[in-house]
Known about the structure:
Elements: H1 3-21, E1 27-29, E2 36-38, H2 42-51, H3 53-69, H4 74-77, H5 79-82, H6 84-100, H7 105-130, H8 143-168
Antiparallel strand pairs: 1-2
Amino acid sequence: MTTERIVIAGVLAAITIILGVVPGLGFIPIPTMAGNATTEHIPTILGGVVAGPVVGIFSGLVFGILSFLRATTPLFKDPIVAIVPRLFIGLVSWAVFAGLKGLNRDVAAVVAGFLGSATNTVLVLGLAVARGYLPPVAVLPIIPQAVVESVIAAILTVILARIFYILESRLVRAPDTKPREELPY
């Protein structure tokens, strides 16, 4: 772990906590079977894409613990359902991005965002069915929402990853108009 990756992990963990604590940001109440749409997984996806699997897993751990601690349903009061699937979001996002970035970095970010979000949905719902919290038929009405969440995650991932890489390569600079000694501060 480099200092840069530790800082990225900290910033993404802070964003994850803010999304989870501020009502309506990370878990958006909607009138569907799922009860909430989520944007909480976006920092975890971004962590995997821009900083690698360890940062992605750490951000997913923060997401999972927050989900577990704030749970109001028996489904998410189970740490296996609330925490374990979230660890794989950053890992899958990293693996997909790493595998595809040689072709095109934007395409890799889009696919990583989509599959990272899909990983969250598939694993949470799969464990919910496997552990008896949901009958298999209850998953079907959630699929359209999951697809929309995955598309939104894909769009946000490519935008945020692009911003990160622009800043990282320092392509955006303020012009120096005066020597440092002449500045008033």
